[in-house]
Structure formats: structure tokens, C-alpha cells
Amino acid sequence: MRESFIPLSVPNLKGNELKYVTDAVETEWVSTAGPYVNQFEEQLAAYVHAQGAVSCQNGTSGLHVGLILCGVTREDAVIVPTLTFIAAVNPVKYIGAEPVFMDCDDSLCMDPVKLENYCANECEMQDNKLIDKSTGKHVKAVLVVHVFGNMADMEAIMPIAEKYNLKVLEDATEAIGTYYTEGKYAGKFAGTIGDMGVYSFNGNKIITTGGGGIIVSQNVELLKHAKHLTTQAKADEVNFMHDEIGFNYRMTNLQAALGLAQLEQLERFIETKIRNYELYKDSIERIDGLRLLPFRDEIRSNHWFYAVFCENGYKMTRDEMIHLLSDNKIQSRPIWGLISEQIPYQGSKCYRIEKARFYWEHVVNVPCSTNLTAEDVREVTALL
Description:
Layout: H1 17-26, H2 35-48, E1 52-56, H3 59-69, E2 76-81, H4 90-95, E3 98-102, H5 112-121, E4 123-126, E5 129-132, E6 138-145, H6 154-163, E7 167-171, E8 179-180, E9 196-200, E10 213-217, H7 220-230, E11 234-236, E12 241-242, H8 253-263, H9 266-284, E13 290-292, E14 299-300, E15 306-310, H10 318-327, E16 333-334, E17 349-351, H11 355-362, E18 363-366, H12 374-382
Parallel strand pairs: 2-3, 2-6, 3-17, 6-7, 7-9
Antiparallel strand pairs: 1-10, 4-5, 8-14, 9-10, 11-12, 13-15, 15-18, 16-18
Helix pairs in contact: 1-8, 2-8, 9-12
């Protein structure tokens, strides 16, 4: 048995993190004011070629604000994927709106064919609003999640959104650094194609602020409103006057200091992710009954998570593989349980959920940290 533990996905803090965080502490700028917050926002916006960025406490809070800025209310519905982490969908309920769960395609992201079929066959346009015929709800937005660093098919999704007057909120919490290399959106980063995008800097993401997120957009007015809402909607800071319900969602200077140092290393992290993915792929392609799920050909993915697919008839089930790896001190996991089957969402509307369940039954995520060595990859694949 191995002596050391190989984790699934952990931070890599070998750059200027300590230097910048120490500076924040020594200058006593540790809360939501401080120069690192502005620097992090500016440099991240420049990296993804967005008009601006507004930091927040986590990806979930960013999605919450994003839905509000999309005009979603408790009278509305939002199209969401069933195959994602539940934090992507919970903000719909924070507002009191209703989710409509959509299936995935082979990229594990939202299926645009089913999205179009739902809009065309289950809904009708009334006064330029998409109305679900069975619920009477105004379907106001679609929340697209870029899963594991892959890119949803935005070339197909955006025309559907335009046709049915849907706002598009991109959950790019797993996909910072992913961008199109060809086609209509060549050079466009995940999170910058729809009305707004949100990134996450949780400890398991490719770059981290410990816990944090950021909202990006090409719409300057939306960004101004986002900053207003995330700072308690202060209309007059001196006299503590507020003009709408706001939130205490601002990132701290300590978090931003960490994030700035991480952003400096992002491209190097992505190079490591791609190299290790290719090492996994080379080994797994030699094993009957296993394959490593690909990323779209037309993108440069950040390769955040690696998904091993166990074919029917492979010598182990998904769960047996997870247990075998665990017994050898290697962390792995299945993909998320389908949100539409979770207790809080039982009874919510679903549209032809088929592939999501299929992939849930067959996929194992294997270690993918940027600290991972070639020897680590060999040790993982030797057990498969």
C-alpha cells in the first residue's frame, strides 16, 4: 500500500501568495476595502477580456446576484442543468423562482438540442416572453454551467436564447482560462459570452482565494449594479442610506491578495493540467473498458477535472473503482448526484433527463491537482 496520500484537487500556493497576504496584514488592509481587491478585479477582467469584474464571497453569491441582475423574480422560471453541483441551482430558489432541469450532452454540459426542443414544444411566446405552457411561468433565463473546465456549446445556445428572449448567465466557476480557439466565438473566454459570467475560487479550483468568486460582464451598467448590490446597496455611504436590498458579498483584501498571486500562475497551472491529462489519457487508452472523457476540439480548456468513464463490462463498477483507489490512499469521487433528484428539488420540472443519469452511473473523477506528478499519475492508472 502507498505511504503518501494523493488528494483529488488541492491548492498550489508556491508563488507570491505569502508575500501579498503578508503585505495586506502588515498594512492592516484585511477587510473588504484595500488595494488588492481592485487589483485582482482589474487583472482578472483583463485576463478574460471582460469590461470589468466585481468580486464576491463565492461563486454561489455571484450567481445569486447575477440572477437578480437578469431580472429573475419569484414569478419566473430559470432553465438549469441537472448535472452540476447543487450550489449552481440553489440561488434560483433563494429568489423564489422555479428551476426547469435540462439534460446534458456528451460534454457533460447543457444539451442545446433539448434546450431548443423544450422552448419550442413545452413553451409559447406571449408578448415577447417565453411562457411554460404547463406551469404558466415566465421562463426568463438560462443558467449554463461549463462542467469540469469544458465549454458548453455556446454557439448553439446563444441563438436559442436570442430567439426566445432569454437572459444567459454563465456558471464558469470550473472554467476560468477556458476559451474558444475557433468559430464564431474564437478568443472568447468561458463566462464572457452571455449576459454575465461567474468564477469560483474555492480551495479545489484551479486558482483559489480560499473561498471567493467574481462576476464578469461586457455590460458596464450591469457591473455597476452588481457592485452596488454586493456592497449592501449603499446610495449614500456617509449617511448610511440604502436604495434597495443589498448583500454583504464583497471579497476581502486578504482573499484578493491570495487571488492575485494565483492569477499570476494560472497559465502555468493550465499547462500542468493539460500535461497530466495527456499522461492519464495515454495510460487509460491502453485499458479495455476505460476511457478519459475529452474536452471540445474547438476550445482551449483549463482541464480542471479529469473524468474517467467505466464502460459496461469493465472489471470494476464505478463504486468499486472509488473504493479500490481509496484503499490505496488515492482520493477520487463520482460526479454529483442529479440535482433534480435531490430532496429540495423533488417535484420540480424536468425535461427528458437521460444522458445525465447515464454519465452519473459511469464516471469517476481522479486526482488532478497542479501539484500532481507524473509518478502520481502512473500510480493511479496502475490500479485501474
